[in-house]
Amino acid sequence: MKVLKVLSCMLLICSTACSKSDPDTPKKEDPKLHSNFVKGADVSWVTEMEAAGLKFYNNAGTQQDLFQVLKDKGMNTIRLRVWVNPTDGWCNTDDLVAKAIRAKNMGFGILLDFHYSDWWADPGKQTKPAAWASQDIAALKTSVYGHTVAVMTALKNKGITPQWVQVGNETNDGMLWEEGRASKNMKNFADLIQSGYTAVKAVSSSSKVVVHISNGYDNSLFRWIFDGLKNNGAQWDVIGMSLYPTATNWSTLNSQCLINMNDMVARYGKEVMVCEVGMEATDPATCKAFLDDIILKTNSVSNGKGLGVLYWEPECYNSWKGYKLGAFDTSGKPTVAMDAFLVK
Any signal peptide, and if so, which residues (predicted)? Predict the structure, then answer.
């Protein structure tokens, strides 16, 4: 009997081990990313590039609409900037709406990016629109509100509701200088943010308002800005950040960015989003490693409050406008860096 029991046990163990190693046994794998994780790109240059004759291709070399190429690379969100009255017309309200319609028709979510300028607004310049140049802070608050409502309404009239809306772009020292320069008058900056917030919610209560700062690794900068906004009564839903590392420092900056994101969640209870990333197009393998890592780090943010990652103008190739941080090769096809967004 003892021999039979031992043999029986051995057969049971063998059977269990074999079933575990059976390659035909289906394995249940947990998804790596939250189901609603944002994987996207800012492609605000697309209409201007198309007008200049540039074309886009999938990896097989077949010409396709850029939005289709991005969708096939796993992206689900498009970010679009809007300027008040640009001299060349690109990225004005009409151009924005045309691109937003295309994005919506392809099933993308939309992140709308207000610069509150006629041209680029970033950490080094926050120039008032020409039409607002002589306005004081009271008039500027009114102008921010009116412009925001007008653009949001133009989208709404086409059946488009942005899921996220940035009020200002890389506002490291406020916006609409000098009146809204944060280092000179944080209260003015907070009031301008609040004007934008109120305007967004007046048209679409479901849209989440983003305040966007560059250098996502710089915790002291983020604490200074968001403490200042909080202490002066401004409201926001999402803390947005940019991250543009080099091929040599990306791992360090990604780790610092994750520390900062978790601190923002703990300190303010808000969601966070990496609204812009980029790296030299000539090193796509390193760029993919950077993207793989920052996507998973953002997904790991505490309490599920890491919303997603968006590449800034990946479709740029052949140094379009002198920009060299795209993720397409010289023939107009996505590089291996873009495969990072295929993760699910």
Answer: 1-19
What are the extents of the domains in the chain? 36-342
Query: Annotated catalytic, 48?
Result: no
**Cβ partners under 8 Å of residue 138, min gap 6:** none
Catalytic residue among 179, 271, 276, 315: 276
Catalytic residue among 170, 271, 313, 315: 170
Digit-coded pLDDT (tens) for 1-24 = 444 343 444 433 334 443 444 444
Query: Do the bridges between strand 164-167 and strand 208-213 make them parallel or antiparallel, or are there none, so unpaired?
Result: parallel
User: Which residues lie closer than 8 Å to 78 by C-beta, 6 or more apart?
Assistant: 40, 41, 42, 43, 67, 70, 99, 100, 103, 108, 109, 110, 111
Q: Is 170 a catalytic residue?
A: yes
- Confidence category of residue 31, pLDDT binned at 50, 70, 90: low
pLDDT above 70 coverage of the chain, percent? 91
Residue 4: CB atoms within 10 A of its CB come to 8
